[in-house]
Write a structure and sequence with these properties.
Blueprint: H1 28-53, H2 57-60, H3 75-88, H4 95-104
């Protein structure tokens, strides 16, 4: 039977994270930084919530449909058309340049 107190590399000095502390313990400086970031954004979030409250109910109820697997109507056909266009005119350019070209389409 394995010992429950066996050391792990999670959160220990020299482990993968490079942070000091016991396993699964969040260092106080990390907590403080997280809370400071939240405090800096508090006003921006309040402004966003006010703007959102002015939107129609159907938009307020679903501000981010994409993470739920919903895609805009016509997206599949638009992506297929773009792929066909790019495949029909192959270019001999670097990968980064190809990505730039694809993003401009």
């Amino acid at each position: 039977m394995a010992s429950r107190s066996a050391p792990t590399s999670c959160g220990r000095q020299g482990g993968r994270s490079g942070l000091a502390g016991a396993a699964f313990e969040v260092p106080q400086e990390a907590i403080a930084a997280w809370r400071a970031a939240g405090a800096r954004s508090r006003g921006l979030r309040a402004e966003w919530q006010q703007r959102l409250a002015l939107k129609p109910a159907d938009i307020r109820g679903e501000p981010h449909p994409a993470p739920r697997g919903k895609r805009p109507a016509g997206l599949d056909s638009a992506v297929a058309a773009l792929k066909d266009k790019l495949a029909a005119a192959p270019q001999t350019v670097a990968t980064a340049k190809r990505a730039e070209i694809a993003l401009r389409c």
